[in-house]
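Suppose you are handed a protein chain with no further information: no name, no annotation, nothing but its sequence. What can you learn? This example shows the usual starting point.
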Amino acid sequence: MQTLPPPREVKEGEAKEDKLEVVTKGPPQVLNKAQEDAIVIFKATKAAYLNAKNYKEMDLLKSYLKQVISLFRVIQKFLHWKEMLKKYSDGWNLYTERKHIKGLKNNKQLTKESNTQDPKKPYKIPKID
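A reasonable first move is to predict its three-dimensional structure. Written in structure tokens, the prediction is:
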């Protein structure tokens, strides 16, 4: 059985420095003109969606959001989705927005249904005993 030698004591100020390697993933991806244009259109459509949301234009919201989602899918082909959300979406999640619009649409339908009365349904007179 082989025994290891005892560790060498190091005096203060004489410490051996560990060499650390810096690992990088490579140079940042360079985008071509068409890819940059797609990102610019995405940002503009997102801004138009947010403006419509501020002015409560429900009719426009759904179409703007469809455009934003389709542009996001195009951009995903050349950028990773995490990088896309981090750099160009400012933390704004378009799929969460889609859920909110579906909820608002359902609420709007429920209020329309509750406001309309069935003309065939007669009014019931309460009985007084």
